[in-house]
Amino acid sequence: MNDYLLDVKGWFEMEIPEGWCVEQEENIINIFLTTNPQGVLQISFHTIDEKVKMREYVIVQLKKFIENYNIICGMENPKVMEKYHYTYANASGFCEEDYIEIWTVGYDTKFLLITYISPDKTDELICINNIVSSIRINTDN
Fold it and tell me: Cα–Cα distance between 28 and 17 in angstroms, integer?
């Protein structure tokens, strides 16, 4: 498999597997299989006006997203991790009848909201998790 590196200048880079399509419009990136896509991975990114306690910020943003979109999931204790000097929170559940996986990622004043939505929880999610875990936020300020 021939992955390629997607470099979002000044923000982050990530590995995109062969057979996946990337569409970018301003601060939103959509990633999906070119043949028989089952779902869409969407990454939106923006800056935060001031430095915040990132661990708390990613949790609050994750909970707000879940509440705003009426996502059904066990959110009492979201998965929160520190990786490569940045922090991310993760949860999954159902929005209406679609499966959704959500990640909130932050470093310094950079924030990423990442979602994967699919009619079902499928094997495609393995590849999606590999794409998300390949993200490397640019830590040069």
Answer: 19
Q: Which amino acid is at 127?
A: C
Q: For residues 128 and 40, give the distance between their C-alpha atoms in angstroms, rounded to a whole number.
A: 9
Range list of H helices, the chain: 54-68, 124-133
Coil, strand or helix at 81: strand
Domains defined along the chain, listed by start: 4-137 (3.40.1000.10)
CA dist 114 and 19 (Å) reads: 20
Instruction: Provide the strand spans (E) within the chain.
Output: 4-8, 12-16, 20-25, 28-33, 40-47, 79-83, 86-95, 98-107, 110-118, 136-137
Structure tokens at 129: 């998790």
Give tens-digit pLDDT for 21-71.
999 999 999 999 999 899 999 999 999 987 788 889 999 999 999 999 999
How far apart CA 74 and CA 76 sit, in angstroms, is: 6
